[in-house]
Design brief:
Layout lengths: L13 H19 L6 H8 L3 H7 L3 H17 L8 H18 L1 H10 L4 H21 L6 H24 L6 H22 L14 H25 L4
Amino acid sequence: MSDSPLPPPEPADDQAFDAALIQAAFRLAGTEGWRNLRIASAARAAGLPLGRARLRFPSKGVLLVRFGRMADAAALAEAAEEEGVRERLFAMLMRRLDLFQANREGVLALLGTLPFQPRTALMLAVLTEVSMSWMLSAAGLDTGGIAGRLRIKGLTAVWVWTLRAWQRDRTEDLSHTMAALDEALRRAGRAAGWLSSLPFPCPGSAPRAKEEPEAETKEAGEEKGGGEESGEEESQGPS
């Protein structure tokens, strides 16, 4: 009888399969580099069947798509109990970063190759905006119209800023990252407040109420009409 260990059981569902392969892929990327990563190598490292890996992950691009969805699911898994919008966004983005932290070395390897892989960088930029749209919607903010697009762009900038801080953060509790995220959200909130205070409406924002200006115009017209009548009465006086 062979003393070789039994192969690990195959995950019963796609979600568990994907998580196992993605974890193995980022672990390999951390040691061998992202450009040298092969899906087949990750599947073998995780003890997963190659045929199923080929069907589920035909390319590294698909791996990145599924990894992003996993990060979004982690961020959205818990109910938003925080009181304010900024607090809800902070909690969700930090939960999203938890998955990045769990695969830190591989994610850092990926980020290090982006300046030399523009197609991958562009794909990740598009995926990130989709993810930020989900975060905003979960926080109770509208993402439709021009104003919604501005919110998505703004939160994407917050995420990129925070991710750069995370790359440099070596603290166990990610205190530097949390501070960077908190400051970025505060700045974004101030910018949003400044836009809403402009004397002209921001594109996509609700129109200003017109009841008061119309009332003032009507009153001014009545006063002007009264003045004209008074002038006519004066002109009819003795010559």
